[in-house]
Amino acid sequence: MTPSLPALLLGLCCSLAGTAQAQTPADANTAYRCGNGNYSSAPCPGGVKLGAADARSAAQQQQAREAADRDARLARQLTDERHARERAAVGQKAINVGPVAAAPPAAAASKGASKKPKKPKSPARPKTPHAGKAAAR
Question: Residue 17: which residues within 8 A CB-CB, separation 6 or more?
Answer without folding.
Answer: 68, 72
